[in-house]
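Much of our argument rests on the idea that a fold can be written as discrete symbols. This step matters because it turns folding into a mapping between discrete strings. The record that follows shows the chain in one-letter code together with its fold in token form.
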Amino acid sequence: MTFEQLEYFLTTAKYMNLSKAAAELFISHSAISKSISALEEELGTRLFVRKNNVLTFTPSGEYLQKQSAYLLQLIENSISGTITWSIPAIFETKLFSTITKMGQMHPEINFIFNSEDPLLILQTIKNNRADIGIVFSYQLDELDQDIEYRYLFKDAFCAIVNAQHPLASRE
């Protein structure tokens, strides 16, 4: 997901109309439509239901709108200064391009990324060594009242084995 796709999605969500969103962004209707279609393909889910030139959210679209708006609001509220991120290495590639675009849109904000052991990120946030941490959802059981969280995305991990391995036939 790129920041541009996110911006196009949120602007479309604002108007629930591709033509109005395209006009606000000074791009063509087809460009915004292609961008949203590419985002839907990347995420593996539909974000809008298009029927008779009327857009409505799918549950995934509504979820993405709420979570994206939260993240953008967090960054918008940090008018200047430094935002330090603490993220697991596994998420670096997934988040880097989006946050890089945010940095381009907000040159007054200095973004610092620290790749950390996922098990240490919660403590990093509690000790104020980072402003934002990205953790796995299973770690939310460890949170206390001093920590706020929002789900950003869902990811599916799977275990793989060679088809000839004895475990291949097991569930």
